[in-house]
Amino acid sequence: MDDLCTEAFARKPTPDRPLLGVTVLVVEDSRFASEAMRLLCLRSGARIRRADCLASARRHLATYRPTAVVVDLGLPDGSGDTLIRELASSDQPASIILGTSGDPDAESVALSAGAHGFLAKPITSLALFQQAILSRLPLRRHPRGMRLISGDQIAPDPIALRDDLNHAADILASRVDEPTLDYLAQFLTSVARSASDPALAEAASRLHAAGRRGKDPADALHAVSSLVDTRRAASAAF
């Protein structure tokens, strides 16, 4: 089913819900980041589908053609820029392809792969999210009349953050080989950026550096594990 085929039957966008009629596929393994995207879509009038890995995204795309695809660059089964390249070179590419990451340096990777734009985490600004999509939609799909630019910032449910921390703790409790270490470092960097947690982001960065330089990651793993445990204990209060 082609989601774009339903455009003629979709409700028309309005100034306060400018993305009515838009479907967004969010390819994101973080529950916290996904919750932020869900709230942004809800406030904007867009429908959302979610895939937590490359394989799941490809299954969605084999059946549906969303208006926009937002792809996290770090996924459990590979790099998101692989999917961006596939989408950009498809015979029927999505209208809008956006990369996202907790690493601002990843913007060049996403754009080189064929993304139309990039959303740096944390993604909390309603106005920036709406503009990233509206700026790439044809004018016939824009709301008519004056549209107030919202200054609202969304705040994801902290329970979703706890889910991410539990996921990280499960990984830390298992045997962490080199590919797992690389994934864990990027996952926690993304979560930390989304949660505005600079201490966790720095610890994840050190873990990533240890893996890249071939150093013993034991100290970096211990530091990350301690922070994850502290954050989990704090989140239990919610």
TrEMBL record:
| Residues modified as 4-aspartylphosphate | D72
What Gene3D superfamilies does the annotation carry?
3.40.50.2300
Q: What domain of life does the UniProt record list for this protein's source? A: Bacteria
Among PROSITE patterns, the record links this protein to: RESPONSE_REGULATORY
Record-linked Pfam families: Response_reg
What GO biological process terms are annotated to this protein in UniProt? phosphorelay signal transduction system
Keyword set includes Transit peptide: no
Q: Where is the Response regulatory domain?
A: 23-136
Q: Which UniProt keywords apply?
A: Phosphoprotein
UniProt-recorded name of the protein: Response regulator of citrate/malate metabolism
